[in-house]
């Protein structure tokens, strides 16, 4: 079944069109990877889907879980099951990871999860993520390494159980061990009833996740789609000076 369908999506920021007609269909059970050079519009696509106010939708339609996504408010999008790795705050003094996650779960689910069962759930998910449970007592992101922040985002994803998780890999300086743990976890969180969209320019994540589709985004358009071999082709030839 269909999770999201994007048709001819064009968007502008500060009067300049960045997305120039994106078409993308993602079905339940699928993992999609979007690759592309810097400035292509990858993060813009994620931001537009989440409803970031800086981005104006010029034209196009997005259907998410059968509903018109573009008319939904940001919190409605999250409640409908859209998750963006970077929608969460950087540092929150005085709020522990555990409390933050419990509140985030309440906002999406509508009811506050029971403290004890929620703690149990967190512990099992942290074990999968290879995270020390002492982090639950720490203040959100305060003094966390890049790898710890990233694991936290994946923990949030695990807790919120979204229909579509969009993971924008900006340029995170993750070491290879953190990349492995994070993407092995992402792969484990891929289920028959959800979908995952990973935005990256790192081929090495493909050692840990198995995407069903790889798309190449250049200058605001998806210029090619294929399977994982497309990523290998890019690895060897690069994005520049290519006839797509
Ligand atoms: P990518 O993630 O593919 O590297 P981005 O989507 O971040 O690319 O950026 C695409 C283009 O849109 C860039 O030229 C960038 O400067 C511009 N852009 C993105 N967000 C904003 C913004 N909030 N204000 C101004 N320009 C922006
Ligand atoms: Mg699959
Ligand atoms: Mg980006």
From TrEMBL:
Entry protein name: Fe-S cluster assembly ATPase SufC
Originating species: Fusibacter ferrireducens
Ranges for domain ABC transporter come to 4-244
Query: What PANTHER family does the entry give?
Result: ABC TRANSPORTER I FAMILY MEMBER 6, CHLOROPLASTIC
Q: Output the superkingdom of the source species.
A: Bacteria
Q: Which InterPro entries match?
A: ABC_transporter-like_ATP-bd (IPR003439), ABC_transporter-like_CS (IPR017871), FeS-cluster_ATPase_SufC (IPR010230), P-loop_NTPase (IPR027417)
Supply the gene name. sufC
Family membership, please give it.
Belongs to the ABC transporter superfamily. Ycf16 family.
Q: Which NCBIfam families match?
A: sufC
UniProt keyword list: ATP-binding, Nucleotide-binding
């Amino acid at each position: 079944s269909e999770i999201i369908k994007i048709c001819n999506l064009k968007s502008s920021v500060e009067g300049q069109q960045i997305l120039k007609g994106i078409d993308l269909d993602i079905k339940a059970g699928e993992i999609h990877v979007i690759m592309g050079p810097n400035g292509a519009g990858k993060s813009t696509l994620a931001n537009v889907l989440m409803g970031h106010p800086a981005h104006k939708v010029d034209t196009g339609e997005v259907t998410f879980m059968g509903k018109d996504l573009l008319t939904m408010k940001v919190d409605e999008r999250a409640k409908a099951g859209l998750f963006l790795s970077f929608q969460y705050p950087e540092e929150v003094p005085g709020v522990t990871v555990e409390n933050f996650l419990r509140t985030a779960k309440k906002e999406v689910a509508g009811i506050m999860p029971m403290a004890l069962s929620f703690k149990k759930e967190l512990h099992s998910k942290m074990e999968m993520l290879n995270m020390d449970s002492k982090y639950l007592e720490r203040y959100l992101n305060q003094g966390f390494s890049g790898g710890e922040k990233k694991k936290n985002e994946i923990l949030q994803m695990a807790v919120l159980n979204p229909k579509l998780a969009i993971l924008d890999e900006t340029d995170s300086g993750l070491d290879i061990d953190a990349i492995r743990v994070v993407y092995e976890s992402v792969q484990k969180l891929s289920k028959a009833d959800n979908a995952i969209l990973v935005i990256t320019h790192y081929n090495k994540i493909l050692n840990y996740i198995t995407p069903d589709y790889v798309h190449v985004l250049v200058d605001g358009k998806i210029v090619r789609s294929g399977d994982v071999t497309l990523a290998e082709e890019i690895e060897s030839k690069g994005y520049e000076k290519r006839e797509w």
